Amino acid sequence: MERLLAAMGDPALRVRLPGGDEVGAAPERALGTVWLRDRGAVLRALLDPELQFGELYTAGRLVVEGDLVSLLASALRSDADQGWLRRILPKRLLEGVSRHDRRAATQNARHHYDVSNEFYRLWLDERMLYTCAYFPRPDASLEEAQLAKMDHVCRKLALRPGERVVEAGSGWGSLAVHMARYYGVRVRAYNVSAEQVAWSREQAEKQGLADRIEFVLDDYRAARSPCDAFVSVGMLEHVGPQCYGELGRVIDRCLTSEGRGLVHTIGRARPQALNRWMVKRIFPSARPPSISEMMALFEPNGFAVLDLENLRLHYEQTALHWLRRFEGAWREIEALVGAERARAWHLYLAGTAASFRASTVQLYQVVFARTASAALPWTRAHLYTGEADGFVARRETGGAD
Amino acid sequence: MERLLAAMGDPALRVRLPGGDEVGAAPERALGTVWLRDRGAVLRALLDPELQFGELYTAGRLVVEGDLVSLLASALRSDADQGWLRRILPKRLLEGVSRHDRRAATQNARHHYDVSNEFYRLWLDERMLYTCAYFPRPDASLEEAQLAKMDHVCRKLALRPGERVVEAGSGWGSLAVHMARYYGVRVRAYNVSAEQVAWSREQAEKQGLADRIEFVLDDYRAARSPCDAFVSVGMLEHVGPQCYGELGRVIDRCLTSEGRGLVHTIGRARPQALNRWMVKRIFPSARPPSISEMMALFEPNGFAVLDLENLRLHYEQTALHWLRRFEGAWREIEALVGAERARAWHLYLAGTAASFRASTVQLYQVVFARTASAALPWTRAHLYTGEADGFVARRETGGAD
After folding, report:
1. Which of A174-183, A293-302, B303-312, B386-395 is predicted with the least confidence, judged by mean pLDDT?
2. Rounded mean pLDDT of chain A?
């Protein structure tokens, strides 16, 4: 166990073994203790920590005492290569083959998003936004920050009333509703999760926007209609890099000559696979791209990148909000999905906050247009006009932009 | 000739042959006329238009009637592949081998920048900035826009008084002087052009900043001292992609753990070589990178990209300012460098404006930091505070930031 910790770069944690012995960092340096409760758990953790940490945590055979986010961030910072197995085993053997054809993509998404709407309502914001928020100030509330994120996206796209928007991967529909309501556009939104589409349609009905938003229960590859703006928030992580060229061609076939596009995705500072436990239990076949990988979407398809913003700190903050709400609703969540699933999701949310804090993942927002397009904003100053002084709140009280 | 024009995608121009016959676009659609004055010129233009257009223009054997920038932009838009030769000949044969070792890099830079300081003074702004300016408003003067560019760069780097800056490729030294004067930093600036370094040292002396700026007559690969910020404006175009990894390691060796970096470069929307005439006559071995190519600088060296801005329209505007000043100083320029060189540079400046207008080239400003750095600005709003209302002018009258 001591060798494993040394190989991991001596993270600031202690490990308690089943007999009660403790190894690892000196108590005054340790951020917490990882308690391995049985001998089998010790063996598994030694053999494949990257996968087994999550498996054992979920089963309750590994318990963490101390602040889970800080402890995970420390471990991630020390062991950026995610365990010694990665250094000795062939990549293929460890990661298997990701599948992203239409059927697999649908199954992958449903695995995650069809848990149940009730489950997500217990810890997301009131609009059910399940992607990185944008905090104009670090102390903004999650509700404010999710509103600000939608406005940040709409401003980057410079949406004008009457324009047509295609959205790929529309979650519970809040961005589509926001765009239609406050920016006066018509939206066609694609999503393979039946639960989310049903919810989205209901939201659009309630707000009297059903005639301006069409939620299509289908893969992004079904998009064919012309649009003035293409937007995808939090989908590219699930599209395998081998499909980026195809996604680029879908955008190419839809976007008008002066159209704008925005892709918002979890990414990497360098090409690197996602933690194997996350891929196995939380996001099947997910792969956050590095910028060079992401360019396969734009460079071969005649698009020029106009703006790229890394919002990593905003995702740490977002995940911390989710985590606090999740912990606050623990009893209801446990009753709804069972103790094992609750623990798995708790670890996943804490791990997300820790990964963004440790910077093993990034959040990229990329604005692009056809290379030959002349419809570019002169500077980015318009993104920030009025942002600090309650711009979002004014919208909510019916003020015009 | 008609076949050549068809192969070029029928640009909006007419061609007048030595006998007086004209072919090409209908007069009402044509933006101008390209007059080939002798039979040899016709043959050369047919065989290798990409290279020979510039050669013949320089020699006065090809004359353009009409607006040169519009005409070139139209030709570039029609013929994004830069001539049929590229489609039939191996790349190596056409482009030769670029050399970027220290000696070649020095020769390449001196070819361009050591023409003479007097020459550049006739058409650059008063501070001799020879890179893309930043126009807070499209009608800003070139002087204002170059000041605004320097401030935009300094704000992106979040420079603080007393910090140490390494600059790679420092031109006539104005950015180094600006950083030391208005942001209170110490600068070590590398440049291989002796003429520019002599000029730069004189500027620093005149402004009483010689103790805070060291201009080093050497290649960027000589940089070793620790710095809080690394900046390079308009050098990466001259660094071959095969040397990006090395440049990244130089930055890695210099930058402190919480340091910030900025690279400003002409680039491409997709990997593509520069026009062969430009490489032969104007910028030996230059290669503007696509974003995926540029990532070789950051991804393998532990840097995360925080912000990328495409300022293509600003470079079109900058080059138009240079072109107008160049044309206004034509007699002096001709007397100084001769008619052939004056024509070559005139074509190069018009071609630069046309290339940015036609979007065959882009301008990327990339901010980065070590992946593990926590010294990130929360949002980009601080870049735009006060920008519109005379921020630059206030500095010049001694106002504090």
Report:
1. B386-395
2. 90
* Cα-trace Rg, chain A: 22
The pLDDT > 70 percentage for chain B reads: 90
| Chain B residue whose CA is closest to A314 | B378
Chain A residue numbers with beta carbons less than 8 Å from the beta carbon of B384 are 379-381, 383-384
Q: Minimal Cα distance from A372: which residue of B?
A: B359
Phi, psi for B259 (deg, rounded to 5): -75, 160
Amino acid at B125: D
Smallest Cα distance from A320 to chain B, Å: 16
Q: Which of A367, A174, A152 is nearest to A255 (CA)?
A: A367
The separation between CA A119 and the C-alpha centre of its own chain, rounded to angstroms, equals 17
Task: Please indicate whether, in this complex, the C-beta atoms of B270 and A299 are within 8 angstroms of each other.
Answer: yes
Q: Beta strands of B288-387 (E only): which ranges?
A: 303-310, 362-370
CB–CB contacts below 8 A, A to B: 119
DSSP class of residue A218 equals S
Backbone torsions φ then ψ of A33, nearest 5 degrees: -125, 135
Q: Do the beta carbons of residue B233 and residue B169 sit within 8 Å?
A: yes
Query: What structural domains does chain A harbor?
Result: 2-95 (3.30.1050), 102-396 (3.40.50.150)
Per-residue pLDDT tens digits for A176-205: 999 999 999 999 999 999 999 999 999 999
Contact A304 B387 (CB under 8 A): no
Better pLDDT: B109 or B332: B332
pTM of the model: 0.93
ipTM for the complex shown: 0.92
The token pair that represents A273 in the structure block: 């696979």
**Residue entry with tokens 């360019």:** A295
Residues on chain B touching A295 (C-beta within 8 angstroms) = 290-292, 295
Residues belonging to chain A with any Cβ–Cβ distance to chain B shorter than 8 Å: 77, 134-138, 269-271, 290-292, 295-296, 298-300, 302-310, 312-313, 358-359, 362, 371-373, 376, 378-381, 383-384, 387-388
Q: Taking a C-beta distance cutoff of 8 angstroms, is the pair A303, A250 a contact?
A: no
